[in-house]
């Protein structure tokens, strides 16, 4: 054990941890007290890629929007690009790069993809293909996907309860769109909502206890 | 069906305020006399973990509050590779909010503060070490209730939220209590960010003797020396209207009978005005007076009521979690963090069976630094070895240097210092 006369303490290092003055030429520590810390920059890579994606999305969207306004402001074609850039941003930064729950990735994909398709539909004369066909299909596919995950992960399905409930809730959006006159094809909208209702009934019938328990936990005050 | 627990009253705030610069992860560790065997430590952990049901949990999101659910996954021991109190990412840790680490002779437990306080962590560590030594074939005799055994069934008292139990309805509106802003330590954050720890080891009985001679407890003495170090290194020259405030977590189990293994502590703020010239004797007098009056039962009862009252009101309860967390973060920054200069936690002398002591060199407590409190201090003693540990997230170390310098000068005792050297040029 060495002694640092400047700080008045015994030291087991080459330099004093308090004043950083050298107190020994070398220390023969037979057993180290702490590890040598390896380079910790690897973890930053993911954040760096996310920043690049964010920057690229902003560059794409803003450049096209400005060109659009300068060249032919009567037809806002740049909204296609803005929608695409937004979707790229969500897909890269949330679906691919983030460590978020798979359930939340699916729900956010449904919301972002639906929004992009609606923007594209509206930009090109609003033929209503997005609200009539695309959104109902996306919702059914996503609900089916979460149902399959739940059936496969039996032991850990509880974690997906919130997300399947969210999808069931979203499943009733198309019928709302039909009632308000935004969507015009009844069978697609009603089919989606019926599918959501059947999923809910199935959940309640086969595992009402877990459902009830999960509800109590998630909503406890 | 898996068990679930509400997050206890003190624990809720840690869910809200945790971020990269505030991990809410603290460490209790022991330095063994021999090198640690990874396989035996893993076996010991597998035995012990079920004995602590409120630690073996994963956190789940709720609409109004988060909650804990029992975790059936395996928790693997890990070799220490990064700095102490590194944020815990549950996804990389099988959902668990605590880690068991080893490095050469050290066995460390790092815990997200929402699970338990220092007392709970020490109980877990004691049981783990006991199991580890037993699996190594050592004959450890344990008398009385010095530790919890892994084959015992957990008592319901161990899993209770004692804040709820001792809460008394009060008409006082604690939100109207005025908070005095304290002096804040400023410095250059490490790049890359991390935590540097400096441990100082001193003979506990000798320090106790010195403190007794001055008519005070060890905690009072250390607090006073620390305040003097902060004053002499940062505020001696210039005009300051702020005060130096040391936040001392108080173990409520000492005044309110409880054997809970969840959080049950309150924070006592010791405040010293340093507007003019001030001597160590002045500081000692103020610290002793305040610490004694603020750790009486009524004062601590107020602390419990303050904690629980706000969370019990219906207005708070029915607000969605994300909004509540924003409000809690605001309260933490403006009422908790700005009201203190640093935190000093003293777990005291750890009650270990005599037969275990011969296998243990000493104990360390590392308290995570935060953005506004970039230096924190943890104290514990075992085997007559007291370890005073400073954890800091800034380059500047003058306060720590001054503290140990004064400690060795005032007591005449030898202080042995070692560090993890984070941020030092090699």
TrEMBL record, chain A:
Organism lineage string: Bacteria, Bacillati, Bacillota, Bacilli, Bacillales
UniProt keywords, alphabetically: Membrane, Transmembrane, Transmembrane helix
Protein name, entry field: Zinc ribbon domain-containing protein
Stretches that traverse the bilayer: 48-71, 77-97, 106-127, 133-151, 160-179, 185-207
Annotated source species: Oceanobacillus jordanicus
Top-level taxon of origin: Bacteria
Pfam family, one: DUF6320
TrEMBL record, chain B:
Stored InterPro entries: Alcohol_O-acetyltransferase
Name listed for the protein in its UniProt record: Alcohol acetyltransferase
């Amino acid at each position: 054990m060495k002694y640092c006369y400047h700080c008045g303490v015994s030291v087991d290092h080459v330099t004093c941890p308090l004043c950083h003055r050298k107190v020994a030429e070398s220390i023969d520590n037979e057993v180290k007290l702490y590890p040598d810390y390896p380079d910790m920059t690897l973890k930053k890579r993911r954040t760096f890629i996310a920043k690049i994606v964010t920057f690229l999305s902003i560059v794409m969207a803003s450049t096209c929007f400005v060109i659009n306004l300068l060249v032919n402001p009567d037809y806002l074609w740049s909204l296609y690009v803005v929608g695409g850039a937004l979707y790229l941003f969500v897909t890269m930064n949330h679906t691919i790069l983030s460590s978020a729950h798979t359930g939340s990735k699916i729900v956010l994909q449904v919301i972002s993809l639906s929004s992009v398709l609606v923007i594209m539909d509206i930009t090109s004369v609003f033929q209503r293909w997005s609200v009539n066909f695309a959104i109902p299909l996306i919702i059914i596919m996503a609900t089916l996907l979460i149902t399959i995950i739940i059936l496969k992960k039996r032991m850990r399905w509880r974690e997906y309860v919130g997300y399947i409930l969210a999808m069931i809730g979203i499943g009733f959006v198309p019928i709302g769109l039909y009632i308000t006159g935004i969507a015009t094809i009844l069978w697609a909208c009603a089919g989606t909502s019926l599918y959501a209702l059947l999923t809910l009934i199935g959940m309640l019938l086969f595992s009402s206890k877990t459902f009830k328990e999960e509800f109590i936990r998630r909503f406890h005050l | 069906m898996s068990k679930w627990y509400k997050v206890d009253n003190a624990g809720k705030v840690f869910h809200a305020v945790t971020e990269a610069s505030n991990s809410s992860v603290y460490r209790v560790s022991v330095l063994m006399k021999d090198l640690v065997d990874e396989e035996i430590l893993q076996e010991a952990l597998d035995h012990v973990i079920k004995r602590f049901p409120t630690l073996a949990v994963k956190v789940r999101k709720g609409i109004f509050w988060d909650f804990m659910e029992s975790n059936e996954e395996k928790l693997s021991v890990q070799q220490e590779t990064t700095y102490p109190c590194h944020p815990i990412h549950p996804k990389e840790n099988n959902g668990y909010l605590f880690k068991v680490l080893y490095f050469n002779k050290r066995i460390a437990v790092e815990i997200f503060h929402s699970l338990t306080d220092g007392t709970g962590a020490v109980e877990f560590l004691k049981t783990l070490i006991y199991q580890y030594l037993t699996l190594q074939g050592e004959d450890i005799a344990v008398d009385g209730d010095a530790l919890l055994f892994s084959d015992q069934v957990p008592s319901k008292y161990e899993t209770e939220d004692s804040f709820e139990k001792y809460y008394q309805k009060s008409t006082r509106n604690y939100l109207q209590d005025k908070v005095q802003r304290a002096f804040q330590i400023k410095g250059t954050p490490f790049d890359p960010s991390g935590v540097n720890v400096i441990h100082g080891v001193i003979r506990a009985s000798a320090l106790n003797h010195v403190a007794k001679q001055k008519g005070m407890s060890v905690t009072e003495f250390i607090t006073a020396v620390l305040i003097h170090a902060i004053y002499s290194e940062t505020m001696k020259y210039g005009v300051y209207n702020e005060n130096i405030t040391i936040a001392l977590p108080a173990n409520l189990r000492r005044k309110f009978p409880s054997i809970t293994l969840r959080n049950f502590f309150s924070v006592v703020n010791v405040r010293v005005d340093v507007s003019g010239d001030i001597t160590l004797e002045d500081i000692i007098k103020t610290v002793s007076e305040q610490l004694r009056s603020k750790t009486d039962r009524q004062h601590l009862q107020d602390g419990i009521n303050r904690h629980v009252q706000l969370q019990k009101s219906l207005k708070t309860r029915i607000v969605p979690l994300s909004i509540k967390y924003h409000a809690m973060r605001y309260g933490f920054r403006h009422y908790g963090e700005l009201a203190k200069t640093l935190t000093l936690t003293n777990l005291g002398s750890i009650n270990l069976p005599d037969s275990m002591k011969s296998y243990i060199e000493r104990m360390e407590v590392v308290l995570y630094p935060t953005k506004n409190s970039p230096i924190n201090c943890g104290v514990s003693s075992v085997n007559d070895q007291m370890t005073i540990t400073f954890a800091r997230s800034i380059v500047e170390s003058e306060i720590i240097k001054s503290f140990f310098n004064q400690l060795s000068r005032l007591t005449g005792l030898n202080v042995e210092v070692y560090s993890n050297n984070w941020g030092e040029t090699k």
